[in-house]
Amino acid sequence: MTSDEASSRPTRTLDKGRMEGFSDGVLAFAITLLVVDIALRPPGSPTQQFFHAWPSYVAYLVSFLTIGAAWIAHHGLTDELDRVDPVFLRLNLLFLLAIALLPFPTRLMVQGLEKSADWQRLAAVVYGINLLVIRILLTALTTYARSRHLRKPDVADPDLEEARKKFYYAIAGYLLAIVIGLVVPEFAIILYFVVAVFLFVPFRAVVRAISGRG
Known about the structure:
214 residues, mainly alpha
C-alpha cells in the first residue's frame, strides 16, 4: 500500500456510548471524593472547630463548581457528537486525568491555608494549574470535534456555546490567579471562586428568566 493510499483512508470512528458512560463515572467519582476532606479538627470548641474549617468549605465549593461546570460543558459536547474517533478518545482521557487529579490539589489547598506562606503559595499555584488544564483540555475536545466533523449536523447546545464564549475570560482569570497566588494566596482562592461561579452560572438564561423572555 502506498503512502497516498494510506493517507486517503477514512479515520476509524467509534460509537460514543461507552465513552459517555466512562466519562460520567469518572466525573461523578471525582466530585464525590471532594467531600472526604471536609472535617473538623481540634483544638477548640465544636463551634470554633466548625468555623476554623473554612478552608475546607471554600476549596470544596470551588472544586465542586469547577467539576460541575466541566460536566455541563462535556455533556453538551457529547450530546452533539455523532461519533468519536481514536484521537478524541485519547483527548477525553487526558481531560478525565485532569478531573480525577483535582481532589489532590484541593486537599493541598486546604492543608496549605493552615500552614506557612510557602505552603500556601505552592498550593495556590498547583491548584490553579490543575483548573487551567481542565479548561484547556475541555476546549481542545470541542475544537477537535468541530475540526474533524464528529458532531451531528445542525445541532447546537446552549450550555456548550456559553462555555465556548467564556473560555478566554476563564483562562485569563486562572492565569491572573496563579500569578497572584505567588504573592497573596488567599486572594487567589477568591479569584478561583469567582471564575468557578462565572463558569457555572448560565447568566444569559438567568437574565432571560428574570426579564420574562423565556
